[in-house]
Amino acid sequence: MTTHTRRLALGLAALTIGIWMATAGNAADEKGGLTIPKDLYPKLVEHAIKNTQEAVDDLSAKKLGGDIKKFTIRKARNGLAMIATYTQITPDVDAQERATLRDAALKIIKTIDDDNYAAAKKQVAGLTGLKPDPKAKPGPVKFLNNFEWTEDVMQHFRLNKDKGMEIEAKLLKMALAADKKKEIAPKDMNEGFVLMLYQTAVAGAMAKEIKANKKPKTWVTDAEEMNAAAADLLKAVDKKDGKAAFQSLNKLNSSCNKCHTDFGVR
After folding, report:
1. What's 44's DSSP letter?
2. CA–CA gap between residue 1 and residue 228 (Å, rounded)
3. Mind listing the pLDDT tens digit for each residue in 33-85?
4. Which residues contact 194 (CB under 8 A, 6 or more apart)?
5. Which residues are CB-contacts of 7 (< 8 A; sequence separation ≥ 6)?
6. What's the total number of domains in the chain?
């Protein structure tokens, strides 16, 4: 089992048996929950910065309105929330560096909420290569404080036309392609897929920290089921076990569908 698999498996097992502590921030407690491997951290952060930059570029350069503006704002907030969460669950990276990036990401969310998109564009550009601020305070910061955050977190799974990352569509497409042989091809079990699974797991863990307006126990259970399925899938991918990966992928897709049914989240 690789370090990537071991950490996700242990972290999600901790979540499943209730060790994930709300007081530790958003996705997890660095001492007991989901953690991001040091080598994947910059890749995940880079991807989130890229998505955020695309969104603020559009917001600052175009006169957007209606749903397009709404989804573009959510795309930007999603990227920044993911960055802030990554920084809080990657203990092997310098704490001061992570705290600095977290604070900068959360500050940009406020700038976007103030409709100052030109300033946000400059701020996002400055995230790459950001030097550690000695005044930044390491440690968890809880910011997923209302159910409205659900819409931002769900941008991971929405279609590209809605400014999403299309993760759910990609997972469904992969399952359909593998359905005939009931097995995922080795070429598809690559680092890109692993990164997508971490993005899925982190989004699910973030969702768990959001207090649902209705059926809160069902909300937490749905999030835990999604994370457990992602953990099983990553284990199978690590072993290059295409048949087990196919079964786990179907469980993951089913968990997504269940959440849609339970809460109407799209």
Report:
1. H
2. 17
3. 678 999 999 999 999 999 999 999 999 998 899 999 999 999 999 999 999 99
4. 4, 40, 234, 237
5. 34, 35, 36, 37
6. 1
